[in-house]
Protein backbone atom coordinates (compact mmCIF):
# COMPACT_ATOMS: atom_id res chain seq x y z
CA UNK A 1 0.00 0.00 0.00
CA UNK A 2 1.34 3.41 -1.02
CA UNK A 3 0.58 4.98 2.34
CA UNK A 4 2.47 2.25 4.17
CA UNK A 5 5.51 2.84 1.96
CA UNK A 6 5.30 6.55 2.62
CA UNK A 7 4.99 5.92 6.36
CA UNK A 8 8.19 3.89 6.19
CA UNK A 9 9.96 6.78 4.49
CA UNK A 10 8.48 9.26 6.92
CA UNK A 11 9.62 7.20 9.90
CA UNK A 12 13.12 7.11 8.43
CA UNK A 13 13.03 10.90 8.20
CA UNK A 14 11.90 11.16 11.79
CA UNK A 15 14.66 8.80 12.89
CA UNK A 16 17.22 10.88 11.03
CA UNK A 17 15.90 14.02 12.72
CA UNK A 18 16.04 12.44 16.15
CA UNK A 19 19.63 11.35 15.66
CA UNK A 20 20.73 14.70 14.25
CA UNK A 21 23.07 15.31 11.34
CA UNK A 22 26.58 13.87 11.16
CA UNK A 23 29.21 16.53 11.61
CA UNK A 24 30.57 16.08 8.08
CA UNK A 25 27.18 16.33 6.36
CA UNK A 26 26.77 19.50 4.32
CA UNK A 27 23.98 21.82 5.41
CA UNK A 28 22.25 23.13 2.29
CA UNK A 29 20.07 26.13 1.69
CA UNK A 30 17.05 26.19 -0.65
CA UNK A 31 15.63 29.27 -2.27
CA UNK A 32 13.42 29.45 -5.36
CA UNK A 33 12.18 26.39 -7.20
CA UNK A 34 11.88 24.60 -3.88
CA UNK A 35 9.49 21.83 -4.90
CA UNK A 36 11.52 21.06 -8.00
CA UNK A 37 14.73 20.96 -5.98
CA UNK A 38 13.26 18.51 -3.46
CA UNK A 39 11.76 16.32 -6.18
CA UNK A 40 15.15 16.28 -7.90
CA UNK A 41 16.60 14.67 -4.79
CA UNK A 42 18.20 17.52 -2.89
CA UNK A 43 18.30 15.69 0.44
CA UNK A 44 20.08 16.10 3.73
CA UNK A 45 19.54 18.85 6.22
CA UNK A 46 18.93 22.40 5.04
CA UNK A 47 19.23 25.81 6.62
CA UNK A 48 15.98 27.70 6.14
CA UNK A 49 15.18 31.29 7.04
CA UNK A 50 12.51 31.16 9.76
CA UNK A 51 10.65 33.95 7.97
CA UNK A 52 10.03 31.57 5.06
CA UNK A 53 8.32 28.96 7.23
CA UNK A 54 4.52 29.01 7.29
CA UNK A 55 2.13 27.21 9.68
CA UNK A 56 0.39 24.07 8.52
CA UNK A 57 -2.21 21.65 9.69
CA UNK A 58 -3.81 20.78 13.02
CA UNK A 59 -2.21 22.21 16.14
CA UNK A 60 -0.98 19.60 18.59
CA UNK A 61 0.40 21.71 21.44
CA UNK A 62 -2.00 23.98 23.30
CA UNK A 63 1.01 26.07 24.17
CA UNK A 64 1.05 27.55 20.70
CA UNK A 65 -2.65 28.35 20.57
CA UNK A 66 -3.89 28.90 24.12
CA UNK A 67 -3.20 31.61 26.64
CA UNK A 68 -2.33 30.08 30.00
CA UNK A 69 0.46 30.22 32.53
CA UNK A 70 1.90 26.98 31.15
CA UNK A 71 2.19 28.62 27.76
CA UNK A 72 5.38 28.04 25.82
CA UNK A 73 7.16 31.32 26.47
CA UNK A 74 9.30 29.80 29.23
CA UNK A 75 9.96 26.54 27.39
CA UNK A 76 10.73 28.33 24.12
CA UNK A 77 13.06 30.68 25.99
CA UNK A 78 14.86 27.70 27.54
CA UNK A 79 15.07 26.06 24.13
CA UNK A 80 16.42 29.25 22.59
CA UNK A 81 19.12 29.44 25.26
CA UNK A 82 20.05 25.81 24.61
CA UNK A 83 20.21 26.34 20.85
CA UNK A 84 22.23 29.51 21.38
CA UNK A 85 24.78 27.60 23.45
CA UNK A 86 24.86 24.23 21.69
CA UNK A 87 23.26 24.77 18.31
CA UNK A 88 20.07 23.14 17.01
CA UNK A 89 20.60 19.43 17.61
CA UNK A 90 17.40 18.05 16.07
CA UNK A 91 16.08 19.28 12.70
CA UNK A 92 12.44 20.12 12.11
CA UNK A 93 10.38 18.60 9.30
CA UNK A 94 9.08 20.91 6.57
CA UNK A 95 7.38 20.52 3.24
CA UNK A 96 7.46 22.99 0.33
CA UNK A 97 4.46 25.31 0.49
CA UNK A 98 2.36 24.39 -2.57
CA UNK A 99 0.95 27.90 -3.02
CA UNK A 100 4.06 29.92 -2.04
CA UNK A 101 7.21 29.12 -4.01
CA UNK A 102 10.34 29.46 -1.90
CA UNK A 103 8.36 29.02 1.32
CA UNK A 104 7.78 25.99 3.53
CA UNK A 105 5.11 24.61 5.81
CA UNK A 106 6.05 23.18 9.19
CA UNK A 107 5.00 19.58 9.78
CA UNK A 108 6.59 19.40 13.22
CA UNK A 109 9.12 21.37 15.24
CA UNK A 110 7.20 24.60 15.89
CA UNK A 111 8.98 25.35 19.17
CA UNK A 112 12.40 24.92 17.57
CA UNK A 113 11.34 27.32 14.82
CA UNK A 114 10.13 29.88 17.38
CA UNK A 115 13.42 29.56 19.25
CA UNK A 116 15.48 30.04 16.07
CA UNK A 117 13.33 32.98 15.06
CA UNK A 118 13.92 34.51 18.49
CA UNK A 119 17.69 34.02 18.08
CA UNK A 120 17.68 35.30 14.51
CA UNK A 121 19.36 32.15 13.18
CA UNK A 122 18.31 29.86 10.32
CA UNK A 123 16.36 26.70 11.08
CA UNK A 124 17.91 23.32 10.37
CA UNK A 125 15.29 21.23 8.62
CA UNK A 126 14.54 18.03 6.78
CA UNK A 127 12.40 18.83 3.74
CA UNK A 128 10.04 16.32 2.16
CA UNK A 129 7.35 16.55 -0.50
CA UNK A 130 4.28 15.30 1.36
CA UNK A 131 0.59 15.44 0.57
CA UNK A 132 -1.96 16.27 3.28
CA UNK A 133 -2.40 12.70 4.48
CA UNK A 134 1.33 11.95 4.47
CA UNK A 135 2.03 15.18 6.36
CA UNK A 136 -0.60 14.28 8.96
CA UNK A 137 0.89 10.81 9.39
CA UNK A 138 4.36 12.29 9.83
CA UNK A 139 3.09 14.68 12.47
CA UNK A 140 1.28 11.86 14.23
CA UNK A 141 4.30 9.57 14.18
CA UNK A 142 6.48 12.30 15.64
CA UNK A 143 3.89 12.91 18.35
CA UNK A 144 3.78 9.20 19.12
CA UNK A 145 7.50 9.30 19.90
CA UNK A 146 7.06 12.16 22.40
CA UNK A 147 6.18 11.69 26.04
CA UNK A 148 5.34 15.31 26.86
CA UNK A 149 2.11 15.72 24.89
CA UNK A 150 -0.60 15.76 27.54
CA UNK A 151 -3.87 13.87 27.40
CA UNK A 152 -5.85 17.08 26.86
CA UNK A 153 -3.47 18.21 24.12
CA UNK A 154 -4.07 14.86 22.40
CA UNK A 155 -7.80 15.53 22.63
CA UNK A 156 -7.40 18.98 21.12
CA UNK A 157 -5.07 17.58 18.45
CA UNK A 158 -7.69 15.00 17.50
CA UNK A 159 -10.33 17.73 17.36
CA UNK A 160 -8.13 19.88 15.12
CA UNK A 161 -7.47 16.94 12.76
CA UNK A 162 -11.19 16.29 12.32
CA UNK A 163 -12.05 20.00 11.98
CA UNK A 164 -9.60 20.27 9.10
CA UNK A 165 -11.53 17.68 7.15
CA UNK A 166 -9.54 14.53 7.82
CA UNK A 167 -11.47 11.32 8.38
CA UNK A 168 -11.86 9.55 11.70
CA UNK A 169 -9.74 6.71 10.32
CA UNK A 170 -6.95 9.16 9.51
CA UNK A 171 -7.21 10.72 12.96
CA UNK A 172 -6.91 7.28 14.58
CA UNK A 173 -3.92 6.46 12.39
CA UNK A 174 -2.20 9.76 13.06
CA UNK A 175 -2.64 9.42 16.82
CA UNK A 176 -2.10 5.64 16.85
CA UNK A 177 -5.33 5.16 18.80
CA UNK A 178 -8.48 3.05 18.52
CA UNK A 179 -11.91 4.33 17.50
CA UNK A 180 -13.01 3.97 21.12
CA UNK A 181 -10.15 6.16 22.36
CA UNK A 182 -10.93 8.73 19.68
CA UNK A 183 -14.56 8.80 20.89
CA UNK A 184 -13.33 9.42 24.44
CA UNK A 185 -11.13 12.30 23.28
CA UNK A 186 -14.03 13.75 21.29
CA UNK A 187 -16.27 13.56 24.36
CA UNK A 188 -13.82 15.71 26.31
CA UNK A 189 -13.51 18.40 23.65
CA UNK A 190 -17.26 18.35 23.06
CA UNK A 191 -18.25 18.81 26.71
CA UNK A 192 -15.38 20.96 28.03
CA UNK A 193 -15.86 24.44 26.52
CA UNK A 194 -12.84 25.70 24.61
CA UNK A 195 -12.47 28.79 26.77
CA UNK A 196 -12.38 26.62 29.90
CA UNK A 197 -9.88 24.21 28.36
CA UNK A 198 -7.69 27.13 27.32
CA UNK A 199 -7.89 28.61 30.83
CA UNK A 200 -6.94 25.30 32.45
CA UNK A 201 -4.11 24.60 30.04
CA UNK A 202 -2.41 21.38 29.01
CA UNK A 203 -2.39 19.87 32.54
CA UNK A 204 0.57 17.62 31.70
CA UNK A 205 0.17 15.53 34.85
CA UNK A 206 -3.54 14.82 34.36
CA UNK A 207 -4.67 11.78 32.44
CA UNK A 208 -8.05 10.58 31.26
CA UNK A 209 -9.63 10.05 34.73
CA UNK A 210 -9.36 13.70 35.80
CA UNK A 211 -10.62 15.06 32.50
CA UNK A 212 -13.51 12.62 32.53
CA UNK A 213 -14.23 13.70 36.12
CA UNK A 214 -14.48 17.28 34.87
CA UNK A 215 -16.83 16.16 32.10
CA UNK A 216 -18.99 14.35 34.66
CA UNK A 217 -19.05 17.44 36.91
CA UNK A 218 -20.15 19.64 34.02
CA UNK A 219 -22.81 17.15 32.92
CA UNK A 220 -24.05 16.68 36.48
CA UNK A 221 -24.30 20.44 37.04
CA UNK A 222 -21.84 20.24 39.92
CA UNK A 223 -20.03 23.08 38.18
CA UNK A 224 -20.35 25.25 35.10
CA UNK A 225 -17.68 26.73 32.89
CA UNK A 226 -18.32 30.14 34.50
CA UNK A 227 -17.93 28.74 38.01
CA UNK A 228 -14.80 26.86 36.98
CA UNK A 229 -13.32 30.01 35.44
CA UNK A 230 -13.96 31.86 38.70
CA UNK A 231 -12.07 29.13 40.58
CA UNK A 232 -9.11 29.66 38.25
CA UNK A 233 -9.34 33.43 38.70
CA UNK A 234 -9.30 33.09 42.49
CA UNK A 235 -6.24 30.85 42.35
CA UNK A 236 -4.21 33.46 40.49
CA UNK A 237 -2.30 33.60 37.23
CA UNK A 238 0.77 31.81 38.61
CA UNK A 239 -1.13 28.62 39.46
CA UNK A 240 0.20 25.67 37.42
CA UNK A 241 -2.16 24.04 34.95
CA UNK A 242 -2.52 20.78 36.88
CA UNK A 243 -3.33 22.69 40.08
CA UNK A 244 -6.05 24.59 38.25
CA UNK A 245 -7.75 21.40 37.16
CA UNK A 246 -7.45 19.94 40.67
CA UNK A 247 -8.96 23.10 42.18
CA UNK A 248 -11.93 22.96 39.81
CA UNK A 249 -12.57 19.30 40.62
CA UNK A 250 -12.31 19.96 44.37
CA UNK A 251 -14.76 22.85 44.09
CA UNK A 252 -17.15 20.68 42.05
CA UNK A 253 -17.03 17.95 44.71
CA UNK A 254 -17.91 20.48 47.43
CA UNK A 255 -20.81 21.78 45.37
CA UNK A 256 -22.01 18.25 44.77
CA UNK A 257 -21.84 17.43 48.47
CA UNK A 258 -23.77 20.56 49.39
CA UNK A 259 -26.37 19.85 46.71
CA UNK A 260 -26.88 16.27 47.91
CA UNK A 261 -27.16 17.46 51.50
CA UNK A 262 -29.69 20.12 50.59
CA UNK A 263 -31.71 17.87 48.32
CA UNK A 264 -32.09 14.96 50.78
CA UNK A 265 -32.89 16.46 54.17
CA UNK A 266 -34.48 14.53 57.04
CA UNK A 267 -36.39 17.00 59.26
CA UNK A 268 -37.83 14.24 61.49
CA UNK A 269 -37.08 10.56 61.93
CA UNK A 270 -38.53 8.39 59.20
CA UNK A 271 -39.15 11.30 56.81
CA UNK A 272 -36.94 12.30 53.89
CA UNK A 273 -37.44 15.44 51.82
CA UNK A 274 -35.75 15.56 48.41
CA UNK A 275 -35.65 18.92 46.71
CA UNK A 276 -34.87 18.94 43.00
CA UNK A 277 -35.11 21.38 40.13
CA UNK A 278 -38.58 20.27 39.07
CA UNK A 279 -40.17 18.83 42.21
CA UNK A 280 -40.12 18.35 45.97
CA UNK A 281 -40.63 14.77 47.19
CA UNK A 282 -41.59 13.80 50.75
CA UNK A 283 -41.04 10.15 51.71
CA UNK A 284 -42.37 8.71 54.97
CA UNK A 285 -41.16 5.26 55.98
CA UNK A 286 -43.98 2.80 56.56
CA UNK A 287 -41.94 0.30 58.56
CA UNK A 288 -41.30 -0.38 62.24
CA UNK A 289 -41.97 2.47 64.64
CA UNK A 290 -42.65 4.88 61.78
CA UNK A 291 -45.63 2.96 60.40
CA UNK A 292 -48.24 4.56 62.69
CA UNK A 293 -47.12 8.07 61.78
CA UNK A 294 -47.02 7.18 58.10
CA UNK A 295 -50.63 5.92 58.27
CA UNK A 296 -51.74 9.10 60.08
CA UNK A 297 -49.86 11.29 57.60
CA UNK A 298 -51.46 9.49 54.69
CA UNK A 299 -54.93 9.96 56.15
CA UNK A 300 -54.44 13.69 56.85
CA UNK A 301 -52.36 14.60 53.78
CA UNK A 302 -55.12 16.61 52.07
CA UNK A 303 -55.75 18.70 55.19
CA UNK A 304 -52.03 19.22 55.77
CA UNK A 305 -51.51 20.46 52.20
CA UNK A 306 -54.50 22.83 52.41
CA UNK A 307 -53.19 24.20 55.72
CA UNK A 308 -49.73 24.66 54.20
CA UNK A 309 -51.14 26.52 51.20
CA UNK A 310 -53.20 28.82 53.44
CA UNK A 311 -50.11 29.61 55.53
CA UNK A 312 -48.14 30.32 52.34
CA UNK A 313 -50.77 32.73 51.12
CA UNK A 314 -50.94 34.58 54.45
CA UNK A 315 -47.18 34.92 54.75
CA UNK A 316 -46.71 36.09 51.19
CA UNK A 317 -49.56 38.58 51.26
CA UNK A 318 -48.48 40.09 54.57
CA UNK A 319 -44.76 40.08 53.86
CA UNK A 320 -44.52 40.87 50.17
CA UNK A 321 -47.81 42.35 49.07
CA UNK A 322 -50.43 40.72 46.87
CA UNK A 323 -49.12 37.99 44.59
CA UNK A 324 -52.46 37.18 43.02
CA UNK A 325 -56.02 38.12 43.84
CA UNK A 326 -56.86 34.51 44.55
CA UNK A 327 -53.86 33.79 46.80
CA UNK A 328 -54.46 36.81 48.97
CA UNK A 329 -58.20 36.44 49.54
CA UNK A 330 -59.02 36.15 53.25
How would you describe the overall organization of this protein?
The chain is α/β, with parallel strands linked by helices and 330 residues long. Helices cover 54% and strands 11% of the residues. It is built from 13 helices and nine strands. It has helices at residues 2-19, 34-39, 73-86, 110-119, 132-144, 151-163, 168-175, 179-191, 194-200, 208-219, 225-235, 241-263, 291-320; strands at residues 27-28, 45-48, 53-54, 92-96, 104-108, 123-127, 264-265, 271-275, 280-284. A six-stranded mixed β-sheet has the order 1-2-6-4-5-3. The protein has a three-stranded antiparallel β-sheet with strand order 7-8-9. Strand 4 (92-96) and strand 5 (104-108) form a beta hairpin. It is elongated and about 90 Å long. Mean pLDDT is 75; it is low at 1-33, 63-73 and 318-330.
Which features would summarize this protein structure in a list?
disordered N terminus; 13 helices; 3-stranded antiparallel sheet; 330 residues; alpha/beta; 11% strand; 9 strands
How many beta-strand segments? 9
Note poorly predicted spans: 1-33, 63-73, 318-330
Q: Separation of termini?
A: 87 Å
Strand order of the largest sheet: 1-2-6-4-5-3
Instruction: Count helical runs.
Output: 13
Element pattern in H and E: HEHEEHEEHEHHHHHHHHEEEH
Largest beta-sheet characterization: 6 strands, mixed
Instruction: Give helix % range.
Output: 40-55%
Content of β-strand? 5-15%
Structural class: alpha/beta
Choose one word for the global shape.
Answer: elongated
Quick check: average pLDDT? 75
Using only C-alpha atoms, the radius of gyration works out to 31 Å
